[in-house]
Amino acid sequence: MITGGITPNREATVRLTIFSSGGQQQQIEAMVDTGFNLFLTLPSSLIAALGLPFAVPAKATLADGSIVDLDCYWVTLLWQGQPRRIVALAADSSPLIGMSLLYGSRVTLDVVDGGPVTIEPLP
Question: Nearest-5° angle of CA 57, CA 58, CA 60?
Fold first, then answer.
């Protein structure tokens, strides 16, 4: 089970462990974004610091409908206690967890300040 909380800004956040290209662990706080249908976004500065390998270029449609070119990088993270290799989009924002990463999970939110956020695998 992955846990987190609701921030005073009404964001559902959880802590994730990701790995550098050399295998070193790094903890990040990521926001659950049900409007994002891919896996994960990471700041470009973090991608560079971790030395993540380039995967592919991609086009992404933002919430305002605009289309932008973004680069994708391979990253390994701990997901439900297991290493999982996924593609993360480089975006100059806080890390976002998208619906493709959440697929196969139950997400529970108590939407009050400090309320719990849980992500668990579906039975």
Answer: 150
What tens digit of pLDDT does each residue of 8-65 get? 999 999 999 999 999 999 999 999 999 999 999 999 999 999 999 999 999 888 778 8
Coil vs helix vs strand at 46: helix
pTM: 0.92
Task: Give the HSE-up count for residue 16: Cα atoms under 13 Å, Cβ half-sphere.
Answer: 27
The answer to whether 89 and 60 are in contact (CB under 8 A) is yes
Pick the CATH number of 2-121 from 3.90.550.10, 1.20.58.760, 2.40.70.10, 2.60.40.10: 2.40.70.10
Please name every residue paired with 56 in a beta bridge, in sequence order, or none if there are none. Answer: 72
Instruction: Give the β-pairing of 12-19 and 2-6.
Output: antiparallel
